[in-house]
Amino acid sequence: MADWMQTTRAFIISLPRLRARRAHALRLAERMPVATVVLDAMDGAALSAAQRSQYVADLHRPRYPFAATDAEIACFLSHRLAWQALVDSGAEQGVILEDDAVLRAPFAESLARLVGTETGWSFVQLHSHGRPEPGAAFLDRRRLPQVEMVGQVVKAEAARALLRASDRFDRPVDSFIQMTWRTGVPIHHLGEPVVANGGIGLGGSTISRKLGFGEKVRRTLVRPVYQTQLVLQAVREETGGTEPAAASGKPLEA
């Protein structure tokens, strides 16, 4: 067994009551080239008051413009469970997949190269919303990481940092990791994605919800503004600026 396989674990986040997704997660676990654990996801329909209290609106800048749903809170808590499981395992890094992940060739080969030979990374997104560009580098870094958390490889020290930074949170987990100036965890991505979202074939998204016409319009108008604010904050960070910090985890004043 290669050295990297002995220091790597995989964790698949899966909600037990969704049978098709659970079955898919178990099949995924059988295909993984490293020891794999299927983790029971937090259920948005069964959150306790204490669990909901970890979500606190308006903690960070730029302000996230949408209130989190119970499903989004549960998703964030589920990823925190995966980060903690990685830390507790003693592994140097972990592959974290959601239960709608679909592995693409060459998944195993890319994982072996990433973990076995590449350096200078802490958190690597394995998926992509676009097609790979010809001649793209094997490993690269975007100023603004992609949203979605279907698949990633995370170093144990990065998992610890993410746990420290997210004892309270004010936005979905994929938007949270975009705030690299807040987490201290840079996000890289593979030039050729090896994980795709197969949720459509497994009953659709567990996060999305139906919105009224007015809310759809509002989100269409507000989201680009928020994205611009994120990019500007990232630029400020690159040039030596800082994020206005929330004192003692309390929300920032408007």
Describe this structure in words.
- The longest helix has 26 residues, at 213-238.
- The protein has nine helices and nine strands.
- It has 254 residues and is α/β, with parallel strands linked by helices.
- Helix content is 37%, strand content 15%.
- The strands form two sheets. The protein has a seven-stranded mixed sheet with strand order 2-1-3-7-5-8-6, sandwiched between helices.
- It starts with a helix and ends in a 16-residue tail after the last helix.
Entry keywords:
single chain; alpha/beta; 7-stranded mixed β-sheet; two-stranded antiparallel ribbon; 9 strands; 37% helix; globular; disordered C terminus
Beta-strand segment tally: 9
Q: Which regions contain 5 or more consecutive residues with pLDDT less than 50?
A: 243-254
- In angstroms, what is the radius of gyration? 18 Å
| Amino- and carboxy-terminal Cα gap | 55 Å
Sequence-ordered SSE layout with sheet pairings:
Layout: H1 3-6, E1 8-14, H2 19-31, E2 36-40, H3 49-52, H4 70-89, E3 93-98, E4 101-103, H5 107-116, E5 123-125, E6 139-141, E7 151-155, H6 156-165, H7 173-176, H8 180-183, E8 187-190, E9 195-197, H9 213-238
Parallel strand pairs: 1-2, 1-3, 5-8
Antiparallel strand pairs: 3-7, 4-9, 5-7, 6-8
